[in-house]
Amino acid sequence: MNNLSNTKRKRRNIHSFLAFLLFVCLSLMPDQAQAQKEKTVTLNVQNETVENVFVQLGKQTGLKFFYDQNVVNTAPRISIKVKNSPLQAVLDKITEQTNLFFNRDNNTISVGKQKIGNDALKSKTRTIKGTVVDETGESVIGATVLVKGTANGVTTNLDGNYTLNDVPDGATILISYIGYQTVELKSGSKELAKITLKENSELLDEVVVLGYGNIRRSDVTGSIASVSSESISKVASASVADALAGKMAGVQITTADGALDAEISIRVRGGGSITQDNSPLFLVDGFPVDDLSGIPPTDIESIDVLKEASMTAVYGARGANGVVIVTTKNPKMGKTSVQFNSYVQTRTLAGKLPVMDSYEFVMAEYEYQMIRKGSADTFIKNFGYYDDVDLYKYTDSTDWQDEVLGGNPISQYYNLTISGGSEKTKFNLSYNHNKDEGQLIGSGLSRNNIILKLNHELFRNLKLETNTTYRTRTIDGAGTSGTNIVTALRYRPTNGLTSGVSLDPDDDENLDEDGNSLNQKYTPLEENKQNYRKRKETAISLKAALVWDMFKGMQFRSEYGISTTDSNDDQFYGALSGTASAAGMNNMPSAKRTKTHKESYRLANTLTYRNLFRKTHNVNLMLGQEINHSQNNNTFMSARYFPVSITAEAALENFALGTPHQSTSYKAAPDRTASFFGRALYDYKSRYYATFTFRADGSTKFAPGKQWGTFPAGSIAWRLSKEKWMKSVKLISELKLRASYGLAGNNRISDDLWHNIYRVYSGSSAPGFNNEEYNYYQFADQTYLYDPDLRWETTITRNLGLDFGIFKNRLTGTVDVYWNTTKDLLVPSIIPNSSGYSRQMTNVGRTSNRGVELSLNGKIVQTKNFNLSASFNVAFNKNKVDKLSSGESEWKTKASLSNWYGTYNYKMEVGKSMGLIYGFVNDGFYTVDDFNFDETTKKWTLKPGVPDNSSFSSGNFSFKPGAMKFKKLSDSDSDLITEEDMTVIGNTNPKVTGGFGLSGSWKNLDFTAFFNYMCDFDVFNVNKLYLNSAVRRNYSNLSTNMSLARRFRYVDDAGVNVSSDPVALAALNQNAATYSWMSVTQGITMSDLIEDGSFLRLSTLTVGYTFPQRWLSRLGVKSLRLYFSGSNLFTLTGYSGYDPEVNIQKGLTPGIDNNVTPRSRVYTLGINLNF
To answer: How far is it, in rounded angstroms, from Cα 1079 to Cα 488?
Structure first.
């Protein structure tokens, strides 16, 4: 009852919240009738320049003032004090003091020294008409055409046309538009009929976001990669990762797999930490977030990635791995604008793994039974007599990839944005909804996002900015527990003589001598239903900022934000699931629930001073203080032994139907950080630049006395293209050299490493259930001995850069060379066992990353009807372990893989790269010639000197010819293969990453194509082992690599077992290409599983059509565009698995392809509509 009441209350709260947002939005829509009334202004200036007064009037009225710069520069200073005075009255006062005159045309006011209507001029005037276009021939709307030195001027209409009356003979006409070079023509010039404006590269200079501010791209002294909203909008996806992949040099973006909620990994310039998190700091509108999965791409204005310490040091302890700054779309003044974006998508599996058909599978099963028992009794029970196996050539074979992954799921996306407002109050309200059906049958994901940004001018120099976000996400459906892909791959393609699903888990009649199910009891489709998950998340964030313009150039900004996230993760395992068959589960259903609450808040205050002294010295100073706090709480409960026939929904709605198993509640220690920081930017004549940054951070993740760290950084730049001696070099339009050095910290480390943590242990899984008594113990819940002297991991970055533009910036580019050193890394160090531990986490490690990055952007063709642009980026990175703990030159670890041999399969070694895979080197397979055969005992014995792999063959396979063979690499006298024969067999670090693309338009058609690539890295293909071995065998299917024509065989075509006949066995396998799958009975890290993952992917191809404006104007539509897009259309690679782009950034054991949902090929049909 309480749950129902809470649910209703939540619904009412949500409805109230939405109604409030709608009310605010409607109340902010400008009244068009009121807008037409005479504007009033308030001014209080003393001895102020005319130009600054025009700026203030423009801000208050929304009108644009156009004038000849020489006219206002020579005008006398003015003093005016008025309150809510009509604009015209204020203009009259300015005329009285300056003798300047004004002419208003719609939203434009032209300024000049002569008054329109002078009789002396009228007798000598003319009317001129013409059109203003850009370099592509497109009309320029709103360009100003002005008689120089007068207030006589007009603006161009929607077609770029203008008519200017009362033009004196011989007068000079000024034609100007923001972002273009001003043109001056005499009144009698024929060029006035069609005026072409050229882009002004200085005025179009891109603005990039730094920490706590923004600057022009041309003023940047460090390394920054940026992606604009235009680029993001060309990718029809609800995932930011899809829009960014391959777009920025040195920024590696991968998705763990093709699941809808797959983890997104971003690594900037390789990352330097060994044991801790290498993720960058993510900021959305200044607020730290865990990842970017909750940000709708349609709401993003820009993404800037700060890649080295001169840019990231202002974030101190959080900036060592780079900073990703996401800026969402801001409110803009104007009439209420409505934008609607929508698309529908369908998916298909990009590729399948080749598995055996019914005949090949049955033949493999027959051979297995003959070798294992020497008889076919069990085979006959399931598949019939060997003489009839040819019938399987003509029966249907089921490839369960088609059933579990082979559908065409549909996804839908809707975005509605309403924006507008007056000069004082502006808003932007956005709603996003998308519902995705997953490629894995039965899985799904739905999202809802509401973002309201509201800016209001409280007073003339005080503004309030608010940003409210409400987000929900639901992941639901069958099979989302992540164990179903290999099951589908290995499920038998035929049921043989038995079929159907055994619904009674206690029925053992269909089990063979080993306890294996003869008909695998249920299909992958049923297993999907048996493994159920539903995860719900609700997040709300409220952010507000007060911006006080204290006086000219000085601004104070105070920001406060609070964010809460609540999640509920339900999981259910049916009676036929693998979990139910585990020890102690009694083949009965179980369920568990995890609830998590996270809250965080941020307070930041900054004081910024900007000024230009004597038109040559540009200064930008910033001081700031910040506090961040976050804390997690979670509760967990589980129950088992539910009724066998219960459904997932019923079990999760009432845990009391099962037997309580565990119940815990945990509140994490708060993570608090206090910071003080500052930055100084200086440039001289936009030619010589210097930037200096400093930050001090204190964190609760460290012991008292060790909590504070300081992070300074500096950079300089020389803009050679501004030098006088470069003006004669017409080829080069932009050239700038950059150099930087700095320190940044990494606080993305585990909590509580500096002191002991104690937990209560009951001696069983949970206390107090079933009236049982338990003994309680308090124990130290840590793998490593704590270290109270822990300090920050620190990254030192060094960067040299070159920015260039040639052919009037038709081709622009950036080259960066960097060398990063990460020191004081947290590494487990060996300590005496007398401490009760074997290792202690200490600050002793050091790594380095060196690399080169290149980015190019070119405008290939620019004509009236046709435009073509291209982009290209490439990054080369090499990392190295410089130091481990004292006395250690290498460190080994093991990936979490079930049924796997050995104590380790990954290795770090001083002087070599991180992410090295460690294992055995395959050397084909054993042949008859490698053995001696005893006719009496019928046993095979290896000849002396032949490497001995016998320890890797167990279970029902006796060591014999056809077994997998490894190389002997150690110097030991024994022929036995051991862990000493393991070596480095793979490197998961790509040496080259990047992307390239083309975009263009022809009349109303537009297209975009983008490719991304990674070269020279290895993938650990665990799936390959399961498809080519007897590991976890349960009448499982195999890869076609183990077909009759390829594998080493023991049964001839007549069905006769020849494994004890050396001559017949050698003759049968004279053309064998690979080992017998039966010889591999446990997981082994070996070179056959390590594959080159290099790939080139066509990640996006989009074609769109924008309808002509003349078709839409009568409908009140500003623009309408339809488009068709394809994603992941093809991948060129030599990798044999589903996809080579696996998670190569996962801690100490990266690059594993194991039982993950493969990526889909996506087709999209969408619409962009503006009112």
So the answer is: 23
CB within 8 Å of 1001: residues ≥ 6 apart = 866, 867, 1007
Measured distance CA(531)–CA(520) in Å, rounded: 16
Q: Do the bridges between strand 125-133 and strand 161-168 make them parallel or antiparallel, or are there none, so unpaired?
A: antiparallel
The token pair at 487 is 């099951």
Strands 125-133 and 194-196: parallel
**Domain boundary residue, one of 1057, 1088, 1119:** 1088
Distance CA 956, CA 368 (A): 9
Q: Which of 149, 173, 196 is the last residue of a domain?
A: 196
Q: pLDDT tens digits for 303-333?
A: 888 888 888 888 877 777 888 888 888 888 7
Please report where in the chains the tokens 């007599």 appear, as a residue: 385
- In angstroms, rounded to a whole number, what is the distance separating the alpha carbons of residues 365 and 217? 66
Helix (H) or strand (E) holding 487: helix 484-490
Instruction: Retrieve residue 98's tokens.
Output: 């300056």
Q: Is residue 839 part of a domain?
A: no
| Residue 759 falls inside a structural domain | yes
Spatial contact of 861 and 888, defined as CB atoms under 8 Å apart: no
**151 Cα distance to chain centroid:** 53
Alpha helices in 234-357 (DSSP H): 240-244, 309-312
Amino acid symbol at 605? N
Range of the domain at 778: 755-788
DSSP H or E segment with residue 94: helix 87-98
Q: Where are the alpha helices (DSSP H) in 584-733?
A: 648-653
Dihedral sign for Cα atoms in the order 1076, 1077, 1083, 1084? positive
Q: How many domains does the chain have?
A: 3
Q: Tell me the pLDDT tens digit for each residue of 872-923.
A: 999 999 999 998 877 788 888 888 887 788 778 998 899 999 989 999 999 9
For 53, the token pair is: 């007064």
pLDDT on residue 917:
94
* Mean per-residue pLDDT, 24-44: 53
The reply to whether 583 falls in a domain is no
Regarding whether 1066 and 924 lie in a shared domain, the answer is: yes
CA gap 819, 852 in Å, rounded: 9
Q: At what angle do helices 50-61 and 87-98 cross, to 10 degrees?
A: 170
Q: Specify the amino acid at residue 925.
A: F
Helix (H) or strand (E) holding 99: none
Structure-token pair, residue 426? 């502006």
Please check whether residue 937 lies inside any domain of the structure: yes
pLDDT tens by residue, 444-487: 899 999 999 999 999 989 999 999 999 999 988 755 444 568 87
Count Cβ atoms below 10 Å from residue 860 Cβ, excluding itself: 12
CATH number of the CATH domain containing 134: 3.55.50.30
Q: Is 175 exposed, middle or buried (0-12, 13-18, 19+ CB in 10 A)?
A: buried
Cβ-Cβ contacts under 8 Å for 755 (sequence gap 6 or more): 703, 786, 788
Q: What pLDDT is stored for residue 184 in this prediction? A: 87
Which residues partner with 104 through β-bridges? Answer: 109
**Helix, strand and coil percent figures for the chain, each rounded to 5:** 15, 45, 35
| pLDDT tens figures, 156-173 | 887 788 988 888 887 888
List of long-range contacts for 1042-1048, beta carbons under 8 Å, 24+ apart: 1042/356, 1042/364, 1042/1074, 1042/1077, 1043/356, 1043/360, 1044/360, 1044/363, 1046/1072, 1046/1073, 1046/1074, 1047/1072, 1047/1073, 1047/1074, 1047/1075, 1047/1076, 1047/1077, 1048/925, 1048/961, 1048/962, 1048/1072, 1048/1074, 1048/1075, 1048/1076
How far is residue 232's CA from residue 333's CA, in Å, rounded to a whole number? 24
| Together in a domain, 47 and 188 | yes
Neighbours of 138 (CB within 10 A): 12
**Burial (Cβ within 10 Å: 0-12, 13-18, ≥19) of residue 120:** exposed
pTM, two decimal places: 0.80
Q: Could you tell me which residues come within 8 angstroms of residue 15 by beta carbon, excluding any fewer than 6 positions away? A: none
